[in-house]
Amino acid sequence: WSVYSKPVPANSRELWTLFLQCSCITAVIGGLFYNWMFASLEYSWHLSTAMAISFSLLLLLTLFLVHPARCVFSMIMPTLGTKQGRKLLLSTCVMVAVVNITPNITSNIRTILQVIQCICKSSSESLLNSTALLDRASWEFGDASQKPIHSINIHLPMNGHFQFSLFKNSTLIHQQLQLAGEKVGRDFLAVEVLVKDSVQVCNKLVAGFSMLYLCFKSTWYLKNYLTNLRFDNFYITKKLERLAVDRKAAHLLAGPPKNLIRPTGLRLSRGEAMLCLVQAMLLTVALLLLLLVVAMDHCAFSVADTAVRRAAAFSTVPVTLDIKYRAEMEILPFLYKLFQFSQKISLQNFEGHYSHNLNFSSAHCRISPPTPPSPSVLLVVGLLFCILYTTVFLETYAQRLCRKIAGSFFESWEEKRALHLYKKLFRKH
């Protein structure tokens, strides 16, 4: 670390050590950069490889030749544990959820629509077939109603058959249902592609902005560290303790003021604790929104699975048509009023029993099985959120590490900052 943080290597051995250190760092960062672009941001492997190689070469030259750049780059690592690093991890969580959960939801919704389409198709076919039953019953009943009239030759009525105007073009119905199903499927596919593309573009923008902001944040910190003696200067460091001992003023640090803390201690100031709580609440809101998407995935699978099982278990509905017909003729009905006398002649008794089964599902329907939620996606998202919650409480310590890194790169300036803090404490005392 002493070689890495030196402004200029002292000899050729330190020079080659620095070059080897920078090469190892750029090789690791280049591999992570390629994996991030190809796997997370879903760029093509050609572009990812070219960008990773170019970025690695540029980073190697910058780290090897520019001393402040090494300091800024070193501070980027702990800065990943702060708010900007959480933004990168959160964008990764959103991308994982959209790429893996959204297609699963649309697939299950498509299964539900296929079940509805199958029920409509099967029930329409069965209903059209039932009209043939009514047609047959009407002709048999019409024939039976005319036979006795013909036998006695009294009066010939009109044709007693019922005339049905039936729509029997089942092919047209099937075509309409097929076209409606295809249209709904295309609409869902278009929505799925639109959501996925929109989130992917937003994720790329957020990721690029976050990376740039990480570099800006580290540069801004180093600039303030080197130009403002009061900036982030409230730590009891070893240089401050040595300075107080040399000037015989160790009593200044015996009972340190409340606004001073030790950088190696675990105690958080009141402001740091409140900031951690606020960041944890904001992260919880994001977690609840993501859990809502996960709940929608489970709900869609549950509905699709229930629809498929219930559709397969649909029983046929029996439809029964009973016709009972009796025709009588009464002779001289006025005699019944005078002499309580009447004679009835039975002309025809007709009984017909017709049955048909209405089917609401068919084995010929093409229904894709419901897709269960992937447990690996939930595991990845859960692990990422555990890391996110960890960074909330480690953000303060990451900032302290940034100060220590800057102090190791610029030791002479760190002594000036310690002297400034000592004079401030001396004046207050």
UniProtKB/TrEMBL annotation:
Organism placement in taxonomy: Eukaryota, Metazoa, Chordata, Craniata, Vertebrata
Signal peptide location: none
UniProt-annotated location(s): Membrane
A single Gene Ontology CC term: membrane
Record domain Dendritic cell-specific transmembrane protein-like: where: 231-422
InterPro entries: CSR-E3_Ligase_Protein, DC_STAMP-like
The UniProt record lists the keyword rRNA-binding: no
Membrane-spanning ranges: 15-37, 43-66, 273-296, 376-394
Membrane topology note: Multi-pass membrane protein
The protein's name: Osteoclast stimulatory transmembrane protein
